Amino acid sequence: MARSKPNILVTGTPGVGKTTFCEALAGSTQLQHLEVSKMVRERRLYKEWDDELDCSIFDEEMVYDALEPLLEAGGCLIDFHSSAFLDDGLLDLVVVLRADTSTLYDRLERRHYPESKVKQNVEAEIFQTCLDEAREAFEETELAIWELPHDTEEHMQEALERVQEFAQSYTPG
Ligand code: ADP
Ligand code: MN
Ligand code: MN
Q1: What are the φ/ψ torsions at residue 34 (nearest 5 degrees)?
Q2: 170: which of 6, 9, 134, 141 fits an S-S bond (Cβ 3.0–4.6 Å)?
Q3: What angle do CA 143, 15, 49 make, to 5 degrees?
Q4: Is 170 helix (H, G, I), strand (E, B) or coil?
Q5: Which spans in the chain are helix H?
Q6: Are 79 and 132 in contact (CB under 8 A)?
């Protein structure tokens, strides 16, 4: 069944600004912000724990099952670092936010992440892990993937305008 409002996945390395961006976008559109990492934590959508990084390893099936009914209704902003476990049929646009190494480093330090976790995330950004994950997951599909810089306030405003425009001009079908 066609959605009356689009589903937009906002992905990228931790610290690129997904949550900041989604909050601003949810405030200026009728889209609902789904902060998936928070859902994973609160609803315990994991079965494994990463001892080295001291964080949960989300369970793809559990997260998919939690998101599916929401995405079927449409109008969701999915805020998550991972994308490959989602079905392209549930999505209308994928936005991959990017940040420079020094920007990301500073943001993660300010978050008081342990050094190993800062390093791992900065490396993931350098190797464009999230972008490649989305490209590989959806390469055989028609789904648009927008890679947008997110280092500055100006970048965020530009990205907001582009995505607002997309949401406004979305027609079911
Ligand atoms: P994520 O959800 O991807 O982990 P956050 O939205 O929590 O990232 O942002 C991480 C930090 O970077 C926050 O302190 C936020 O204020 C800052 N930030 C995010 N986007 C921008 C931007 N475009 N310009 C400047 N600072 C930003
Ligand atoms: Mn976040
Ligand atoms: Mn599919």
Answers
A1: -110, 100
A2: 6
A3: 90
A4: coil
A5: 18-28, 36-42, 60-73, 101-110, 115-126, 129-138, 153-169
A6: no
Distant-in-sequence, close-in-space partners of 38: CB < 8 Å, separation ≥ 6: none
pLDDT digits (tens, 9 = 90+) for 108-121: 999 999 999 999 99
Closest ligand 1 atom to 13 CA: 3
> What ipTM does the predicted assembly reach?
0.97
Total residue count of the chain as it appears in this document? 173
- Token pair, residue 122, equals 């900065």
- Ligand 1 interacting residues, C-beta cut-off 6 A: 12, 14-20, 107, 150, 152-153, 155-156
Q: Determine the atom of ligand 1 nearest the C-alpha atom of 14.
A: 4
Domains of the chain from N-terminus onward: 8-169 (3.40.50.300)
| CA 104/CA 141 separation, integer angstroms | 30
Contacts of 71 by beta carbon, 8 Å cutoff, 6+ apart = 7, 78, 90, 91
With the most atoms of ligand 1 within 8 angstroms of its CB, the residue from 79, 100, 107, 109 to mutate is 107
What is the per-residue pLDDT across 120-155, written as a single tens digit (0 to 9) for each? 999 999 999 999 999 999 999 999 999 999 999 999
